[in-house]
Each structure stands twice: as C-alpha cells, then as structure tokens.
## 1
Amino acid sequence: GDSVTQMEGPVTLSEEAFLTINCTYTATGYPSLFWYVQYPGEGLQLLLKATKADDKGSNKGFEATYRKETTSFHLEKGSVQVSDSAVYFCALSETGGFKTIFGAGTRLFVKA
Amino acid sequence: NAGVTQTPKFQVLKTGQSMTLQCAQDMNHEYMSWYRQDPGMGLRLIHYSVGAGITDQGEVPNGYNVSRSTTEDFPLRLLSAAPSQTSVYFCASSYSKFRRNTEAFFGQGTRLTVV
C-alpha cells in the first residue's frame, strides 16, 4: 500500500541555519503531497502542498518540490527561526481517494 | 468559519469508564477520520468515514466505536477506557465532491488521560 517515510528527528539547528527534512513516498498513481506542521499544544495545519510532478509548494519561507523520478518531497527553508520549532509531517493523499497517509513526523528544535 | 471542532480539549477518565469524543465540521466534507498521537509514533488512524452511514476501521480500532449519522458529526466512543488509551486524539476532515480538495483539516485535539 501507499506509504510515507521521513527522516527521524529530532533535528536541532541554530537560528538562521538551513533546514532540510527528507521525505520519500510509495504510491500507485499520482498522489497529492503535503507538509503539515504541528506547533506545541496544537493540531496539525497545512504548511504547503503540491498536486502534480515538478510542482513546488511554498509558504512562510518553506519550499518543497514534487519529484516523481525520485518519489521525494523534501522540505527546505533557507534560514530557520526559533518560531519554526515544531513537528513537521510529510503526507500524501491517494489519487482520487479520501485517505491521507502521514509520515512519522520530524521534530525540529531551533536554538537562538 | 469554524472548520473542525473537537470537544472536550482535556479529559481524565478512570479505567473502565466510557466516554464520547465529539467532532463536528462545517465544510461539507465527506471524509472524516480519527487519529491518535502518541510520543514518537506519529499519527495512527483509528476509524474513518467516507460519508454519512459509512464507517471503516483504520490501523488501531480496538476499544473504539464510531458512527456517522450526519455529514457534520463523527463522534468517537471509548467503550471501556484503559491506560493504553492515554493519548492525544485528533479528528480530521477532507474532500468534498463539490470542491475537490484533498487537504486535511484538523481539530485542536483532545488530550485524554486514563488512570
């Protein structure tokens, strides 16, 4: 079945460092891909998404490109802030389907 | 626009008690689901529903019941609470046949402790 694998955390960075969180997926068809963020004590919220190959999703300085050839959707940010400390989930939505399948989540700590 | 509303936010139960976690959405979404989130384990799907009157089991359904009598509501029932059900529970909804959008919208979560 479909699945999502993302790098284990926690990831600890200093403020203004470059961030990459790796995500790869297995799916039949052409799923939509997502990154969700969960701030402490809150529910998940959509950070960015891409619905077809080579699409780039972006929001709040974060970017991810849908790479069909490598089945990847890595999250990047050029300069992280303390306020980016959160748990990040990579996810996919099955083609024409309803379910969202989540990766295990990667906790990010950003130090001042 | 309320989105997905979960109640209660916090709950403490004694072993063996039963309770219902409420979830309501106002986006006319067909798909609703319940997840539990445990430390280091990400999100695990408990039950889901693809429309009123239709429910199915996810990865970890034991000890939980659901029903979907309306499009808006999807309550989760704990039949006889156990300490292993201590977790944070999230309700989510997505997809509308009127507006194709497979993004999931989450409630704020219910932090449940079973003692």
Note: Chain A has a mean pLDDT of 92.
## 2
Amino acid sequence: DAMVIQNPRYQVTQFGKPVTLSCSQTLNHNVMYWYQQKSSQAPKLLFHYYDKDFNNEADTPDNFQSRRPNTSFCFLDIRSPGLGDTAMYLCATSRDAGMNTEAFFGQGTRLTVV
Amino acid sequence: SQELEQSPQSLIVQEGKNLTINCTSSKTLYGLYWYKQKYGEGLIFLMMLQKGGEEKSHEKITAKLDEKKQQSSLHITASQPSHAGIYLCGAAYLNTGNQFYFGTGTSLTVIP
C-alpha cells in the first residue's frame, strides 16, 4: 500500500492561476518535504516541516508556500505559477531529521503551466 | 553549490553487460541512499549505506560506501531492460539540519 500519496498525479494550470498540490502520509513521520524536479535535473528542496516547524530554503521563491494542517497532510501552494514552474513536484517524509534517516517519496505531481 | 556529484550523467549499455555509477560527496556523509526513478514517477528506495566500507546487495544491484564515507558506487551485474531509469544518490550530513541532498542523477538505458 502506498505510504506517501500525492494528488493529483498530473496538473495543468494557466499562467498566474493559483494551484495547490497535496501530499498525505500514513507513516506518522515527523518530517515532510517538498521538492521541485525540473526535466533532467536532480530534485531541489523547496522547504520542509519538522512537525509544525516550517523551514524554507533560502532560494525558494516567495511564490511557493506550504501548509501542514496536521501530521498526515502537507500542501504546496503556488500563488501565481509561471511557465518556469513547470516541473515534477515530489513530496517525501522521514521519521526524523537529517542524518541516517531514510526519506520515503510519493509518486510525484507533474505540473504543467500553460 | 552541489554537494553530491554523480557520474556518468548518462549510460547506454547492452543487455547483459555490467555497469557502475559513482556518487562523490564534497563532505563526509552520515547516510548515503540510492534511489531509482522511472520517467515521470516518484523515487523508489534501493539501498542505504551508513558505515565506511559498507557494502549491500539486492538482487543484481550492489552498492558500496568507501572507508572515508565520501564516495559510493552502484554496480549492476548482467543488466536487464527493467534496470533502465534514472539513478539518484541522496545524502544527509551532520549539522545541516533537515537537509537531504540529491546527486545530479544518472540516466541508464539498457538496449535489449
């Protein structure tokens, strides 16, 4: 059974139209991550939550926001998507922070901005 | 800056051939992970290495971590078309909070 579930799998949105991507987990992990992966590139960390504590990466655009209403769910909000935001968005969880902790990934949401 | 570098960037091999993918870290690792990604999908965990000199195998895939814990290799024996995909190494480091870094990825094509 899938442990990290992302919805939708595919999303097409118009330039400038807000979009929300969803991630849920059944692992009861403390940490949830959002990554952006553009074509032929490695995933890039956008931000993560350790429990309710939000940690934003320094180079994550302000256009990207996140919410974690409870342990199981985490959302990625893109307020005004640009064409350059077309990418695969990956959600991951880990039991604890940092070293020696395996991250479990969802199937990803492929976002296309038109 | 890129913490993890992978080589080669892409690899095309004939079915049945052996191959090796390398992952080099700019800092000492505290956990090294290998993932496989099929096109357009999420990451599938393959193996985790923690100790210097550690080696793990699963079916025809073997991963090693060097004694200094800065370099790892992934070796596939007798490759099959099902091995095709993108292989990513991932790592966590001490004193970087909750950061989990990825390598640049290696795209593997296996020709039947």
Note: The CA atoms of residues 31 and 96 of chain A lie 6 Å apart.
